[in-house]
Amino acid sequence: MRTLYQDVRRAAAPVLARVRDRALPQSCLLCGDAGPEAICEPCASSLPRVGADACPRCQLASVHGQVCGRCLKRPPQWQRLLAPWSYAFPFDAALLAAKYRHAFAVYRWAAEDALDGHAWPFARGATLLPVPLAPERLQARGYNQALLIAREFARRFADADLHVDNNAVVRIRETDVQQRLNWIERRRNVRGAFAATRSLAGESVLLVDDVLTTGATLNELARVALAAGAAQVDALVLARVQPLRRRERTVKFNRAVT
Predict the structure, then answer these.
(1) I want to staple 130 with a disulfide (CB 3.0 to 4.6 A). Which of 24, 47, 147, 251 is the partner?
(2) Considering the entire predicted model, what is its pTM?
(3) Where are the alpha helices (DSSP H) in the chain?
(4) Buried b (16+ CB within 10 A) or exposed e, 35-60
(5) Parallel, antiparallel, or unpaired: how do β-strands 204-212 and 232-240 relate?
(6) Which of 132, 153, 154, 159 is nearest to 143 (CA)?
(7) Residues 217 and 225: beta-carbon distance below 8 Å
């Protein structure tokens, strides 16, 4: 029955999309032009994408797409990271609108456009783990943007038999806002912040979030997933922050944190 349901849904999807576009016209979030998508095609083509030659573990500049020296020296807990876009203008504005102004159509658009027509790059049957929010922050915001993103990717790549588990790992203590902290402080801030609620033995886990800056939060979450028995942990974010140069780090943090 499940296979039949998926076949019917795939067949009906184009028709339902045309009905939606006619009944619910929208404007491009970036330029304001009317169209069927949250971000129109001309704006989408101008967004800052991460290069194909980026390091597969951190999605920063590398040589010929090989694992970079940073990841060889200090490997992240996850194996592969996918970050389709750089967190830069104007995509940063679109993600902020989605996160704080309920422009959730950006997440559906991103799930459709992220892989640019390519097949699902991670394990089939993967368990998608959204980065959990603390109960207080979830109550104040009303939603977890990572969960919304995970659901859109599971819908978009239904053929890969993905499933979202929002409760397998929970945040067990509140943490300071990461944006105010440097790299070392961010690691300390999230240490011990998560706990697994069930065994992940043998599962391929995919961590999901909207933006990756230093990777401290995802790294701690990956450590918890591996400790719970996950066979492999990968990560998916919509955008990757490009690191500050040494002089910029010194100005921001009063020291050059590496």
Answers:
(1) 147
(2) 0.83
(3) 2-23, 41-45, 69-73, 91-100, 105-113, 135-141, 145-156, 183-190, 216-227, 246-253
(4) bebbbbeebbeebbbbeeebbbbbbb
(5) parallel
(6) 132
(7) no
> Per the structure block, which two tokens stand in for 28?
């491009």
CB 193 within 8 A of CB 133: no
Low-confidence winner among 20-29, 67-76, 158-167, 235-244 (lowest mean pLDDT): 20-29
Q: What are the tens digits of pLDDT across the range 4-22?
A: 555 655 665 555 545 555 5
Amino acid in position 49: R
Is the bond into 84 cis (omega within 30 degrees of 0)?
no
Residue 159 pLDDT > 50 = yes
**Within 13 Å and on the Cβ side, how many CA atoms surround 50?**
28
180 has pLDDT over 70: no
Determine the 3-state secondary structure of 196 from DSSP: strand
Report how far residue 232's alpha carbon sits from residue 246's, in angstroms, rounded to the nearest whole number.
Answer: 33
Q: Which amino acid appears at position 147 of this protein?
A: L
